[in-house]
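User:
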Amino acid sequence: MISYIHGGAWRDPTISSKSFDPALFFLLDHPVADTIAGFASINYRLSPYPSHQNLPSLPDDAARNAQHPDHIQDVIAALAFLQNEYGFKDRYLLVGHSCGATLAFQVTMARWQSRNAAQFSMPQGVLGLEGIYDLGALRDTHKNIPMYQEIIENAFGSENVWADVSPTSGSFLKSWTNGKLAVLAQSVNDELVDQEQLDRMAVVLEVNQSPDREDLKLALEGKHDDVWRNGWELAQSVATALQHLLIAESNRHN
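Assistant: Predicted structure:
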């Protein structure tokens, strides 16, 4: 099972679950397609964006006035629903792009499970593409661009909570005991999220290294949104991650 979480800075109404469609086109024609039981692309409530040029959010729109932990709890609720409906338990790869990668790794931090926790199983694998893993570091790297401060405050509120909600604060060795694969993918041509985000997350995963989990880095090509918009880079990353999961499963049974 492949479950995808879209990006869009927690607020962009033009980037939704449909952003996985270009990658799906390639995946359905890929040799790994026969090993995939199904695909799910998840939407979640967005944070306010009243200044959006074409689709400004309105104060009374519950779907576009969210703040943490609304986003992550929506994702967990969606995963719990899918697991209950289709019974795949932890046999899935959780994929996220940009802030979707933030959410994917937040899932494995085990800090925001709500009443759905009893039905929820964490993924065996996580693939983060051009992810935001350290909120404060992202703001500091782009301190001359007010948009970054605005986006993070809009989604998470006070800076006092940024460190605790960032995936770089995760204790994955304790919280993600069933993890078999963690993949970090980044393009050197990404104009919005810098390589430092991957580097910081890689250090945290290394500190929390499990003998049962493989950690992998992938190089992408293209600008930030090209990765999902063109579909090929996202599809290839999913296929590579899935192949590594399948090898790990085969080795466990030998």
